[in-house]
């Protein structure tokens, strides 16, 4: 087929490849796209990864590209599982290397096929061809350029009703909040050509939870690779790739911090035994996560580590404000910034959201409004029913001269960073308290945890009270809220996420708890893809786990109470 004719009149052209291999097929496709003056504005390639590596652990991986018109998603999963979790409309399928895959993928492949999608295959078995025909693919002779031994070509001609393609949005948005969540939202939307107005009550970015001197970035590991682990892994790996595109992290680079590694110590011998079993499974490449026994950990750290710990070589610390600055700088002229506006109110009228200051002056107007203002979202009437909590966190700033010089971030129940500008950050507390002032009790709690980490009961003795208090926005399940906000009052007897009524044009990037540094860019990418109708960069089950409307369904289940067989 002539792919250039196929993509000519489409705003986005999506290709699925069943084997990425060494990437040669993707590079050829991208070169054809680049050299076609009548190309689709956006080429989206989705490919199964068959060569696992430290950056391609199980799951979906969005790989940043130099050109904004090209997107590459690599899926590390068997084809049937990957397609079952894919949210996309595919225009062209390139199938090869599937002789041992069975025919179970056919139904899921048809589910994501766009009307009149084309299929180019090599080596499909008769069983696979039959299964695809049963799902609406019509096999026909290949065009001259696609002929060859064992080649098969088909088009998707199913008459089953297909969900309508939503219209492209008007690319104008307001983002409320200039912390790391809001800054990421601006950057990801501006990168797609949106015009964005950023509204912030403070005089500059990163004045609340994103204002700490240092935040740490690291993944999670778990025995069952549960939902929080998978989500955190996806966000962490995206952050590492994305920060490089923004200018990198380290001295003289765009982001202040160090990719110095993180050592997470085991809590005790029992905890170490569980972690040792995870490591023995062999699923985690050493560059991503390596279990160190006590002698190895102590040699690296230069301090006691009696039960060993996980070494995350790619982890480290970063100043969240510098990440905000890098993201906002990348927005260029598409971003308008409204700082120091104080309290605001919002209103929906005639298909537009408007934001007004406390004197009634209009600050911005757009069809899309994104709440990225953390716990401040609780003051917005449409978001008030969401079960969000503001959790106080106090970080202690300690003179570096009072502590041993650490080569990396050290953590367990708390963390301590290597020195920067003569200070070390240690903390942070989790307090149910609305006091924004530094607390001697919280300071002492940080010092006690620090001494436990360092195995030194005298460490930082007499350290002055210094640090910072911030308030994290936390949901009951400790997962972020990413997506369109639900209308609790209109929910009625809704039982499924897709049926929950939503507020028009109102979205949330909320509930990042203490992991906003890595959640921010990736969650903004997910939301931007939802707004644009792009293939999503995450398995659909994990997208559902982040949907703000999950709390509508949970509220209904709670209100019904325990059910019996007679009910």
From TrEMBL:
Family matches, as InterPro entries: FAD-dep_OxRdtase, FAD/NAD-bd_sf, tRNA_S-uridine_synth_MnmC_C
Q: Which residues form the FAD dependent oxidoreductase domain?
A: 173-529
Q: What is the lineage of its organism?
A: Bacteria, Pseudomonadati, Pseudomonadota, Betaproteobacteria, Burkholderiales
Q: What is this protein called?
A: FAD-dependent 5-carboxymethylaminomethyl-2-thiouridine(34) oxidoreductase MnmC
What keywords are annotated for this sequence in UniProt? Answer: Cytoplasm, FAD, Flavoprotein, Methyltransferase, Multifunctional enzyme, Oxidoreductase, S-adenosyl-L-methionine, Transferase, tRNA processing
User: What is the gene called?
Assistant: mnmC
EC numbers on record: 2.1.1.61
Q: Name one GO biological process term.
A: methylation
The domain of life is: Bacteria
The record's GO molecular-function terms, alphabetically, read: tRNA (5-methylaminomethyl-2-thiouridylate)(34)-methyltransferase activity
């Amino acid at each position: 087929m002539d792919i250039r004719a196929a993509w000519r009149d489409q705003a986005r052209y999506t290709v699925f490849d069943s084997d990425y291999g060494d990437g040669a097929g993707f590079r050829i496709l991208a070169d054809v796209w680049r050299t076609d003056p009548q190309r689709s504005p956006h080429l989206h390639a989705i490919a199964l990864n068959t060569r696992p590596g430290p950056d391609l652990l199980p799951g979906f991986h969005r790989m940043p590209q130099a050109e904004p018109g090209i997107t590459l998603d690599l899926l590390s999963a068997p084809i049937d599982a990957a397609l079952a979790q894919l949210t996309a409309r595919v225009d062209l399928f390139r199938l090869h290397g599937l002789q041992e895959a069975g025919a179970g993928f056919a139904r899921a492949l048809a589910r994501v096929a766009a009307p009149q999608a084309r299929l180019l295959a090599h080596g499909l078995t008769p069983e696979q061809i039959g299964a695809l025909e049963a799902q609406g693919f019509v096999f026909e002779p290949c065009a001259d350029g696609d002929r060859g031994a064992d080649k098969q070509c088909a088009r998707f001609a199913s008459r089953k009703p297909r969900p309508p393609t939503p219209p492209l949005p008007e690319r104008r948005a307001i983002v409320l909040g200039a912390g790391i969540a809001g800054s990421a939202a601006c950057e990801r939307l501006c990168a797609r050509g949106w015009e964005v107005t950023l509204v912030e009550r403070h005089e500059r970015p990163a004045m609340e939870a994103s204002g700490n001197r240092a935040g740490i970035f690291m993944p999670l590991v778990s025995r069952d690779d549960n939902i929080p682990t998978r989500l955190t892994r996806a966000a962490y790996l995206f952050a590492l790739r994305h920060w490089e595109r923004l200018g990198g992290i380290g001295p003289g680079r765009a982001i202040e911090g160090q990719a110095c590694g993180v050592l997470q110590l085991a809590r005790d011998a029992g905890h170490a035994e569980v972690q040792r079993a995870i490591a023995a499974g062999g699923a985690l490449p050493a560059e991503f996560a390596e279990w160190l026994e006590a002698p190895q950990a102590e040699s690296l750290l230069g301090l006691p580590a009696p039960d060993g710990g996980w070494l995350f070589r790619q982890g480290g610390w970063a100043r969240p404000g510098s990440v905000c600055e890098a993201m906002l700088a990348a927005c260029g002229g598409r971003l308008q910034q409204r700082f120091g506006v104080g309290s605001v109110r919002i209103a929906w009228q005639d298909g537009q959201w408007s934001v007004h200051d406390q004197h009634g002056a209009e600050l911005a107007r757009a069809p899309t409004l994104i709440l990225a203002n953390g716990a401040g979202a609780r003051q917005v009437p449409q978001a008030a029913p969401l079960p969000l909590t503001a959790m106080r966190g106090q970080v202690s700033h300690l003179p570096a001269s009072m502590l041993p010089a650490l080569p990396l971030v050290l953590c367990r129940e708390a963390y301590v960073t290597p020195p920067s500008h003569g200070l070390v950050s240690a903390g942070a507390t989790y307090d149910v308290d609305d006091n924004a002032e530094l607390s001697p009790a919280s300071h002492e709690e940080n010092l006690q945890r620090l001494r436990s980490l360092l195995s030194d009961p005298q460490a930082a003795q007499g350290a002055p009270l210094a640090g910072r208090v911030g308030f994290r926005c936390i949901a009951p399940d400790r997962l972020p809220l990413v997506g369109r906000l639900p209308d609790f009052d209109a929910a009625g007897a809704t039982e499924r996420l897709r049926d929950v009524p939503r507020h028009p044009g109102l979205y949330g990037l909320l509930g990042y708890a203490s992991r906003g540094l890595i959640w921010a860019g990736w969650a903004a990418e997910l939301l931007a893809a939802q707004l644009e109708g792009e293939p999503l960069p995450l398995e659909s089950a994990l997208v559902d786990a982040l949907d703000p409307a999950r709390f509508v369904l949970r509220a209904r289940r709670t209100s019904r109470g325990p059910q019996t067989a007679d009910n």
